């Protein structure tokens, strides 16, 4: 279906919509109208998939005149406009979520039952006035969302994680696991992947760090991006992967495909969950094993979080250097510790000492990214793995984030260069272009 207008024939008043959404009587009336419209659609055999949004809007407007003559409800002109648009969303889109899904600034949509919806913008969450009529209404939208993914959810399989094409990643949990009603978590894909210059503009890092990482990627360093939930790991991984040459064959492996590499020779792989009995499951580890037979120059793993860490470490040390991935950890040291745990899960055949040597020989750099309470995302450390000493993985930090408070009591971004020369032979030819003050702080 084409979409010739974001909201139909006319934009509606958001303040009016907010006031109406908080009225139980209005929600009940809208639910009644929705059911009557569905009956009418079935009666005339209309196929809205072939119609533009404007055409459906006009259909709803005409039918509403007839239905409200049968069952009057006090609405002024602005309120009627809101009602027509909301009913159009029910018939053609995702109901109350449609407005949020069309807002390019919304990064996350979190639904905690029918009456509680939060929207994430620029790293922070805000409570929304959007509501569902009841749990049945919410479940109808869940089924519609999942129809596009080919997945299903019910009491026997009450959780699902899937990818909505061109929208984002969706996770659903329903009763009996969700005690307060069905839960939806949608992580939006950016309409346009961020570029390196966008990270500078957003002050995620400064120019010298970006220059260093670009050199490291081109020099085929194996790099892990480490960070917490919603810190921006995948987005940052996507940016630094853009430094890979178009002449190289890159295979990406993800549980839910989010990476949008712009390289010319990219093969994208996505894991597949099995049925109720687990039959047909293809996990990230299976994909990684198969990837080694696909002649990749580089392997990019969306997130290393299971036994696939073993195959990834082995790949990095057996001809597939220059590979990239992310890991969930709050510091470079914690990332290394987590790798040890994951290698154990994967059945690493050696002892602790040999495991640490394997990690040290595989990983060249760990880039730490952090999301702050106000939504800012910053690279807080760039750390090189240099070897093993006294059975401890040795590291040296090249850059760290040390913000300062200025005279106006405002936080000023500041990154420090430790001035230590890289130990890796891959970085032996690295020479910083400048040590002068850049846009976001001194390189000291």
TrEMBL record:
<feature type="region of interest" description="Disordered">
    <location>
        <begin position="423"/>
        <end position="444"/>
    </location>
</feature>
<dbReference type="InterPro" id="IPR027417">
    <property type="entry name" value="P-loop_NTPase"/>
</dbReference>
<comment type="similarity">
    <text>Belongs to the GSP E family.</text>
</comment>
<dbReference type="InterPro" id="IPR050921">
    <property type="entry name" value="T4SS_GSP_E_ATPase"/>
</dbReference>
<feature type="domain" description="Bacterial type II secretion system protein E">
    <location>
        <begin position="92"/>
        <end position="367"/>
    </location>
</feature>
<feature type="compositionally biased region" description="Basic and acidic residues">
    <location>
        <begin position="430"/>
        <end position="444"/>
    </location>
</feature>
<dbReference type="GO" id="GO:0016887">
    <property type="term" value="F:ATP hydrolysis activity"/>
</dbReference>
<dbReference type="InterPro" id="IPR001482">
    <property type="entry name" value="T2SS/T4SS_dom"/>
</dbReference>
<dbReference type="Pfam" id="PF00437">
    <property type="entry name" value="T2SSE"/>
</dbReference>
<protein>
    <submittedName>
        <fullName>CpaF family protein</fullName>
    </submittedName>
</protein>
